[in-house]
Specification:
Chain lengths: 455, 463
């Protein structure tokens, strides 16, 4: 059998301990390699999607809108405009003659119909080619309708998902600084890079409230336009996720002098450390004491419940392949807490620094991979005899087909995995997959059995 | 004619909650049904990834779609080099015996001449003096800005026969072009042909590639699919059966092509859903096989009619909204009017222009009042039209994307077709033939019973 690894991709794969650490990344995906990556448009759509009172109009062909319609678990406590899929559904004539007029009419009618607080207009491949003046149309509609109408320069082919994050941040940055700052106290933060999947941002907001920290804007989980407009009033930005909203934090620091810290709400260590970092920032001993108390309380509930799962899962092998590497750091630690061994870790869009850090926190023999594909991932799963694979929808059938357990840790998930309670949910989900009796019947287990019987 | 909801004068230019998908997705599904094939999208990476996720979520199976992963540079200077590198990689790593290349709106708009690039690739790969076996490379033009996933699906099927089928000495085989049906449907169709003693060339056949067994190793290309040799032999078959009344109404279909080019007699049929459309399908099979339907199929037909009688009172005058792909809507409507359900609204995101006429044909004299028909509709238009009806509907039939309406109206949704994203086993739903009609009938009656039971204060456990 031919090797599953493309020659062109060999330097995007590292086996810890086999050679000095060196990895290439941040490259265009190899043609024909079936990358698990998406595109610029996807990056923008992912970041902005949870803003629930904005109109999200896809200016392009129907596919881009249809494939992103209500697929994520990003919840809203109020309006749910984000769950509708709006599209200009470009047709052949639009491509030939341009679609500015169609875009204008679509925006006007949709704004009249839904009364959004703002509108985001996503550019797609085709719009980047036919050269519609998105900016001009948006300006005109904004003037006429009296709401911000923001172009998102998310032409699919102009880079990868990270370029889409940047385009989304640029669009949001135009909102920041336009709102009223009344009522914002000194101990205040914005939550960046949390998308309120399965209500996760509400867990984090509850922790912050217990610490005495005010949240100005959710960016973007359960997000609201008016909150983002006054986000420049916060004292600190908390940035989660691998850079999806990092550009916004940097822009806000440069323009408004708001510092940011990187946080992660996955796993016990990172969750606790993130809260302590906030308390340290505000230099308030009482807040620090409240934070310690909070962590103590939560751990007192969590640890006894985790024990059963730790016993069952101890020694099992895990593989991680996620969109951004930052989540992978937390997952490595979370698996360690469960007594599991991480044997493969990779991401679609990690940076050099990300992979360096993964190299530092993983055990010898671990495979580290950038921008992987089904052939590689399946061969690694088999080689490492993995018990559980963590990834998204596209990784799931690879695991299941080979008889490997799976945990969905992507934007489609409907289970809250953040916070201390999220760690428990995560452990339960991992446990429920790994310990299922069905694995006894899959070929990878029964073939060994047959061989043993035959011997 | 009413085709814009209850407010024909107010035609929205925007689409809200589409009831269709884009053209390349259909082409990828069709190519997945060919043995040894890898679907390949010539465009940016996101298209392949989005479609993979969408398809995986329905079938719960691996769905590798290769991409030429065009970036900004290629969009300016042309995607030829990426296309060739991608083909080379798929050829070498996947060992593909066929690569189905579908274009996207990006590469159509920049004007890449894909057939020429593929010819060049083959010449370069073959090289002087080198002996190299190249896979078949079939190309199809599928710009997302014209037509739906169904046009993409049918275009890929047509491209397969146009580019591969050959003439020659007549064979005893029968071509069966079933359209976008479920893997369970495809397995059942093969069983039917076998029972008639007919050798079938079913194209495409993703009964195994998109609903396969657990594996010891990851199959680069899942086993199953229509063998290449069979597609090549399709020009020599004794007949072609092609499903879909809307499909066969206009222009060049794969079946019509085979007739015009190779003289293979073409039997356009309605998608065999329900009694009469299945009868027509079986009549053609009887004629081709020169024998009556085997007893077990006659029995299935008899049981279906028996069950239609048993269930008729539950269903009579139930008002249904049917939505989805045009030919699926036509088939379902045909069955609904046979069992006394009143389809009050039939809607599709497709706009072949033939939906209304096809519906009128299958409804014939079975319905006193014709349904409201929406072509090229999105779910906001479907909702507006349904809410504008004088009497509200009682149930919905269609895929998962109409669930939000079922929830809003608190009505049962009988899930059918593609995609099924909120239930388990979408790939195993049987729609076709007497057996599919039986299964559909059971589900419909039970949906009505469940609704009645839940609405009842008494809570009868005996209905």
């Amino acid at each position: 059998m031919k090797s599953a690894i493309f020659a062109e991709r060999q330097d995007q794969i590292h086996r810890k301990g086999e050679a000095p650490f060196r990895m290439d990344c941040d490259r265009e995906s190899l043609a024909g390699a079936v990358s698990q990556r998406a595109c610029v448009f996807c990056g923008s759509r992912v970041v902005l999607y949870p803003i629930a009172d904005a109109l999200h109009l896809v200016h392009g062909p129907i596919g881009c809108a249809a494939y992103t319609w209500d697929i994520r678990g990003a919840l809203s406590s109020g309006p749910e405009l984000h769950r509708l899929s709006f599209c200009t559904d470009l047709q052949e004539m639009d491509v030939i003659f341009g679609a500015e007029r169609k875009l204008y009419r679509a925006l006007v009618e949709l704004i009249e119909r839904h009364q959004p607080k703002a509108a985001f207009v996503y550019s797609t491949c085709i719009v980047g080619l036919i050269g519609d003046d998105l900016e001009g149309v948006c300006k005109k509609v904004a003037r006429e309708k009296g709401i911000p109408v923001l172009p998102v320069q998310s032409e699919g082919f102009k880079g990868n998902k990270r370029a889409g994050y940047r385009a989304a941040c640029q669009a949001m940055f135009r909102l920041v600084g336009t709102g009223d700052l009344a009522g914002i106290g000194p101990a205040s933060v914005n939550i960046l890079g949390d998308f309120n999947l399965a209500g996760e941002i509400w867990i984090i907001r509850d922790y912050l409230a217990r610490m005495g920290v005010q949240v100005v804007a959710n960016i973007t989980g359960d997000g609201r336009v008016d909150d983002i407009r006054r986000a420049h009033g916060a004292a600190l930005n908390l940035v989660q996720c691998s850079g999806s909203t990092m550009d916004l934090a940097v822009m806000m620091q440069e323009t408004y002098g708001i510092p940011y810290i990187r946080v992660s709400y996955f796993g016990v260590e990172d969750m606790a450390e993130s809260l302590y970092a906030v308390a340290r920032f505000f230099k308030d001993p009482a807040m620090m004491e409240r934070t310690r108390e909070l962590v103590r309380e939560e751990l007192a509930i969590l640890y006894p419940k985790l024990r059963e799962f730790q016993q069952a899962l101890s020694g099992k092998k895990a593989a991680i392949y996620v969109g951004g590497a930052f989540k992978a750091f937390s997952l490595v630690k979370a698996f360690r807490l469960l007594g599991m061994q991480v044997v493969l870790v990779g991401s679609q869009t990690g940076t050099k620094e990300d992979y360096q850090e993964l190299h530092e926190i993983t055990d010898p023999g671990t495979i580290i991979v950038d921008d992987s594909n089904p052939l590689e991932l399946s061969s690694f799963l088999k080689e490492k005899e993995v018990d559980l694979f963590v990834g998204g929808v596209k990784e799931r059938p690879i695991a299941y087909k080979l008889g490997v357990g799976f945990c969905d840790h992507n934007h489609e998930r409907k289970e809250a995995l953040e916070g201390f309670v999220g760690m428990l949910n995560f452990a339960r989900e991992v446990h429920n997959s790994v310990m299922s009796p069905v694995w006894r019947f899959v070929p990878r287990r029964t073939q060994g059995l047959q061989a043993a019987r035959g011997a | 004619m009413m085709n814009r909801g209850k407010n024909p004068e107010k035609a929205y230019v925007s689409t809200t909650n589409a009831c269709k998908l884009c053209k390349p997705l259909g082409a990828c599904l069709a190519f997945r049904g060919v043995e040894g094939a890898v679907p390949f999208l010539h465009g940016s990476q996101g298209c392949a990834t989005y479609m993979r996720r969408y398809i995986i979520s329905h079938f719960r199976e691996p769905m590798d779609i290769a991409s030429s992963s065009l970036g900004e540079k290629q969009a300016v200077y042309g995607g030829g080099a990426n296309l060739k590198q991608g083909l080379d990689n798929v050829m070498n790593k996947y060992g593909a015996r066929l690569i189905g290349v579908a274009t996207t709106c990006l590469t159509e708009t920049i004007g890449d001449d894909v057939p020429r690039m593929v010819r060049e690739f083959c010449q370069e790969a073959a090289g002087p003096g080198e002996e190299m076996e190249l896979p078949e490379i079939v190309t199809v033009s599928t710009p997302s800005y014209s037509g739906t996933h169904m046009e993409g699906f049918h275009a890929a099927v047509r491209a397969l026969v146009e580019q591969l089928a050959q003439g020659g000495e007549a064979s005893a085989a029968v071509n069966l072009l079933a359209g976008l049906v479920s893997p369970a449907d495809l397995r059942y169709l093969r069983e039917i042909l076998g029972d008639f003693g007919l050798t079938g060339i079913i194209l495409p056949d993703f009964s195994e590639t998109l609903d396969g067994p657990a594996q010891l190793d990851y199959e680069k290309i899942p086993a199953g699919g229509t063998p290449l040799a069979e597609i090549k032999a399709a020009g020599r078959s004794r007949a072609t059966l092609e499903f879909g009344r809307c499909l066969s109404a206009p222009g060049e279909t794969a079946g019509r092509f085979l007739e015009n080019r190779f003289g293979v007699p073409w039997h356009p049929l309605g998608t065999p859903i329900g009694l009469r459309e299945t009868d027509r399908f079986f009549e053609v099979l009887e004629e081709l096989a020169g024998r009556a339907a085997p007893r077990r199929h006659a029995l299935e037909r008899g049981r279906l009619i028996d069950a239609m009688v048993d269930g008729h009172k539950y269903l009579f005058n139930q008002r249904a909204v049917v939505y989805g792909e045009e030919d699926l809507v036509v088939g379902l409507t045909s069955f609904l009017v046979e069992i006394g359900v009143h389809p009050v609204l039939c809607a599709s995101g497709g706009k072949s222009g033939h939906l209304k006429a096809a519906l009128a044909e299958v409804i014939a004299d079975l319905l006193p009042e014709p349904p409201l028909v929406l072509e090229g509709a999105d779910f906001s238009q479907i909702a507006a039209a349904a809410e504008g009806l004088v009497s509200p509907p009682d149930l919905l039939l269609g895929h998962s994307k109409g669930y939000h309406l079922a929830r809003r109206w608190q009505l049962p949704l009988v899930r059918l077709g593609f995609p099924i994203h909120d239930r388990f086993g979408g790939q195993r739903i049987l729609h076709l033939g007497y057996r599919g009609a039986q299964s559909l009938l059971d589900r419909l009656v039970n949906a009505v019973l469940a609704r009645k039971q839940e609405a009842s204060k008494v809570g009868y456990g005996y209905l």
